[in-house]
Design brief:
This protein is of the alpha+beta class. The chain has one domain: Nuclear Transport Factor 2, Chain: A, CATH 3.10.450.50. A six-stranded mixed β-sheet has the order 2-1-6-5-4-3. It starts with a helix and ends with a helix. The model has no long low-confidence stretch (mean pLDDT 94).
Length: 132
């Protein structure tokens, strides 16, 4: 796939979050995809290395606490080969009325049109304040 194709995959993948489209999100990932979130798992359960089924559960739990979807706006991308680095800004309201607004740097690895790995860097302290 071309670099432009890979960037379009990241754009489409990110757009599914606003519609709470977990099935579509999962369909864009390979069966053995790995999602890694920088942080200490003993302080925030979402941190660390997760499999696709573990991410599915995390997303179900996340959407259960939100009013609607999670806007994931891609601000910028740089791509080389099968990797796309994306700067993304999120925005959502929780059911308790809190605002979740966070920035991410995500490094996607794409193979045969599927996301096989994501490395996520974000402010987990803000996530903990809003969701815990």
């Amino acid at each position: 796939m071309s670099i432009q194709d890979n960037k379009r995959i990241v754009e489409r993948f990110s757009s599914h979050f606003e519609r709470s489209a977990i099935d579509e999100i999962l369909s864009m990932m390979s069966e053995n995809a790995i999602w890694w979130i920088k942080g200490k798992p003993h302080l925030f359960s979402g941190a660390g290395k997760k499999t696709k089924p573990e991410m599915e559960q995390i997303w179900h739990d996340l959407y259960a606490s939100l009013q609607g979807g999670l806007k994931m706006e891609v601000l910028d991308m740089v791509a080389e080969g099968d990797r796309v680095a994306a700067e993304i800004r999120s925005f959502a309201f929780t059911k308790t009325g809190k605002v979740y607004e966070n920035d991410y740097h995500m490094l996607f690895t794409i193979q045969d049109g599927k996301i096989i790995q994501v490395k996520e860097y974000t402010d987990l302290m803000h996530a903990a304040e809003v969701f815990l």
